[in-house]
Amino acid sequence: MKTKPYIQDDNVLAYAVGTTLDRFIKSKQADFPFATGELSQLLRDIALAAKIVSREISRAGLVNVAGAYGHTNVQGEEQQKLDVIANIRFTRALTKGGEVCAIVSEEEDEVIDLQNSRGKYVVAIDPLDGSSNIDVNVSIGTIFSIYRRVTPIGYPIQEEDVLQQGKQQVAAGYVLYGSSTMLVYTTGFGVYGFTYERSLGEFFLSHPDIKAPVDGHIYTINEGLQPYLEDDVLEYVAHCKQKGASARYIGSLVADFHRNMLKGGIYLYPGTKKAPLGKIRLMYEANALAFIAEQAGAKATNGKNRILDIVPTSLHQRTPLFIGSEKMIEELGSLMKQIK
């Protein structure tokens, strides 16, 4: 019988489409000797919900899913219809997946106890970040953190399962719904980005082993807060301007963070004279992005301490957040110490 060897580089007529998210996750299962596939399945559940939410967002201008829902969440913010839809989609996916015992969501006042005492994981999630940008077709996103429960399997969840430090995360990520839909995640072994190919219904590896530039030329802050900012932050913003840095602010945390991680920059949302604790939520925003940032070689702080070392005391706890390129964070820290 005659045979012909397969030539992998024969791409004259058909280009390679790349590695799917599912295949990549399976290839990394050996990184977690304590798991037997549950974490991999959990990441797949999140990816499935992200595909559904991406579909809903892409048709927001054609069906009645844009605009305000008519309720406010625990943050006192007016919920948008897509906020509610995203919360339902992710909660359903995580419930049906069977790997999660509890969910902490920005859109829910209390912990969602899934009554799954066999579940090994707790998920903290902002189902749809950047609500103010929904109606104007600007990039928005999803942010998630994954923790292993600390109490024994088979028992009801306890507070210590939920209120864990960021450094206890086993995985974290975000989904960016922009010119394309991207899922970026880390399990503590580097940061990887996947782009959604709608015609195939698959996420494909597009950004392997992301590394943030050590320095950057972008600063991101809501300068409308200037009358309420402390002197050290104002001084740092002036420093950025003096060295020719560009101001870039989208107003969606995921989009601002993603750009700065790829291009080099710093995101600042400090405490203000009106809101000393800032705006960013620790459990399902700051912790996730801080974990990703550190895995990419960047840094995250509240101005005094590393974000991942903060001990949470409540589900919706807020924190100042300074996150970005290592050198820029160090310059900020040095300046804050000098002024104080």
UniProtKB/TrEMBL annotation:
Residues 20-208 form the Fructose-1-6-bisphosphatase class I N-terminal domain. Residues 214-336 form the Fructose-1-6-bisphosphatase class 1 C-terminal domain. It is found in: Cytoplasm. The keyword Cytoplasm applies. Its EC number is 3.1.3.11. It catalyses: beta-D-fructose 1,6-bisphosphate + H2O = beta-D-fructose 6-phosphate + phosphate. Keywords: Carbohydrate metabolism, Cytoplasm, Hydrolase, Magnesium, Metal-binding. Substrate binds at residues 129-132, 222, 249, 267-269, 279. InterPro entries: FBPase_C_dom, FBPase_class-1, FBPase_N, FBPtase. Gene3D superfamilies: 3.40.190.80, Fructose-1,6-Bisphosphatase, subunit A, domain 1. Mg(2+) 1 binds at residues 106, 126, 128. Its cofactor is Mg(2+). Pfam families: FBPase, FBPase_C. HAMAP family: FBPase_class1. This is Fructose-1,6-bisphosphatase class 1.
